[in-house]
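Appendix C reproduces, verbatim, an entry submitted by the partner laboratory led by Prof. M.T., so that reviewers can inspect both the input and the predicted structure.
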Amino acid sequence: MVDMDIYEDSRTVSRSDLAAWLRQLANQLESDGRLFYGAAGAVTVADTVRCELEIERESETEVSVEIEFSWTEPTRVKVANEEEPAKDDEAAQPTEATPEAAS
């Protein structure tokens, strides 16, 4: 499986702004489980997630904190009334409009 980046943003903010952003994310998770990003993007977080907190000293003067959570989306199940793709021999034959369909 290939990783696909959906959204990434990097910026420098104050500690207070960081706390506000984390509270906003927490509120979104608590309310309906959707995290909003970018201009109009959203992703729905599963009810159960795997989470990881990593605190690392990058150098003498730099420390990083990474919060990561992931989940598996349910496999899409084919609905009984979904149409099958047309077979080659059927797709090659023209179809006629019936009077019922034209009205």
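The chain has a mean pLDDT of 83. Additional entries are available on request from the coordinating office.
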